[in-house]
Amino acid sequence: MTVTIYHNPQCSNSRRALEVIRAHGVEPKIVAYLKTPLSEAELRRLVKRLGVKLRELVRDKEAVFAELKLANASEAELFAAVAAHPVLLNRPIVVTGKGAKLCRPGDQAAELL
Hints:
The chain is α+β, with helices and mostly antiparallel strands. It has four helices and four strands. Helix 1 links the parallel strand 1 (4-6) and strand 2. The radius of gyration is 14 Å and the shape is globular.
């Protein structure tokens, strides 16, 4: 089974999702999106796979969200902002052959395994 996790090691939910995946005997592909930000095209593919609007994945409590005045931003503006400021992307996002999901809390990763 191929499993990808969009991971932030500083996030307890992200660390928990990784633990759950590994407890199921799977070593996932770890995308450290803060170190290697996703392009707008990659973000669009990921959001499409999740079947949600990007706004549902944006961390609106981050300082940069307010600084960039994103409260009323269009989807296109949000994609550009998240590509430029990956801290705005909520995590962890887990993708498997069964689907894709924002796993908050991290235990929800088990649903995709």
